[in-house]
Amino acid sequence: MAYKKFYITTPIYYPNNPPHIGTAYTTVVADVIARYKQSLRYDVFFLTGTDEHGMKIFREAKKRGFNVKEFVDKQAEIFKKTWSKLLISYSRFIRTTEKDHEETVKEILKKMYESGDIYKGYYEGFYCVDCERYYTPKDLKNELCPIHLRPVEKLRMESYFFKLSAYKNKLLKFYEENPEFLPERYKNEIISKVKEELRDISISRPKKYLEWGIPLPFDENHVAYVWIDALLNYVSGIGYRRNEKEFSKYWPPDMQLIGKDILWFHTVIWPAMLMSAGLKLPKRILAHGFITIGGRKVSKSAGARSLDYYIDKFGVDILRYYLVRKFSPFKDVEFNEEELRSMTNAELANTLGNFVTRAFALYSRYNEILVFTEKHHLEVEEKLKNAVEKVINNADRFIEELKVKELIEEIMRVVFMLNNYFNEKEPWKLAKNKQYEEFIKVMFNSFETLVHIAALLYPVIPQSMNSLFNYLGFEKPLKIVELKEYGKNIDFRRIEKIKPILFAKL
Ligand SMILES: [Zn+2]
Asked: How far is the CA of 156 from the centre of ligand 1 (A)?
């Protein structure tokens, strides 16, 4: 049976510095979405990677005394290592210096050239090396880059241009016919800007000015502008040219997750390029706000600590949980260590973790009574069953609507409900008073609900839920779609007699 495909991307990151909490935010959220889709039986392709050309990388490598290629090789390894530590389950990690990507960029640019959409001219503007883009005088804030608040460089050079202005009506028509494409929050802003000021864009720079890039297929003396090169990673990443079968299976992207600072590139330039090259357009661009520390966007220059520091300090699952639990497609969110501590202590350690420890302790103590229970004595508690089924039935819709945070809140409501159920029924007293029939019912429903929670939380906190599945007697984690009907999953004979501690209290 062929499953529905789901192609999700993150932006690719400049590897001049190691990943930080800001890049982790986007990447963890994308990973959680990819894992949910997998759990719901989609055939998922999850792409992330590094953006390795351009002036910024070139200068950084030189500054540190490296050959540029050696520098990006080293930096890309750091990214891969950190993502593996954070349990990021990408299908491919693409690097824009890879051969198949370079060939793809040339081929797409050739198509755009042949469509008559590329011409030669001169470019003059204010360039921010950190953004790798030009600004007009009116974009600047006190003559500084509006994002980085640092000086820009005035540049004039020969350049090839993409006739973006010719796509005005096509873009507006596309937005209208595909209301899901633009992120709701920024829709009006983008549409009015396209109506008012759509200009052609520079897509190359002379090789004598910058060698570190992909040569244009129609003029070897120019290299592709790093953004044009970078955007095409979404095309090369799933095998355009290299693997036609894979490409036609996954193209176009179903969800492209980006930060709000790169909206214009992804919602205007990107679809116009694809139109020019004759490729289908992505279904949705989803933008989120920045993650801030002390009110400022997190970046290396803002003095943020390394991601390794946070992973080592809090643990993978706790960090993943907090980042997703804070996620907002609408506003900036503040990363606050104090809040991280109190939130994860309350929700993970004190509620879920504590419940697991107590339930397993009781199971171990009265193990003999439980393992000899006959199947027909296992009675389902309707309110727990209904609560679990409701979350499962809504999970895909929540993910589609980018309500990742809300989905976790729904799951946590079931965790709290289970905790209350356990406390109200007091199964330890039932066992002590030899009310075994009721005791078995409470234990059975507790563990049955728990296995559902484990499957539902696995995409967010895979490390601890993997352990929980093992304790519950499963060799590997169950996908949501692999869960049997409520009441049919737990086998008391397979549960381990241990007292697990899932989350260390911070
Ligand atoms: Zn900038």
From this structure: 18
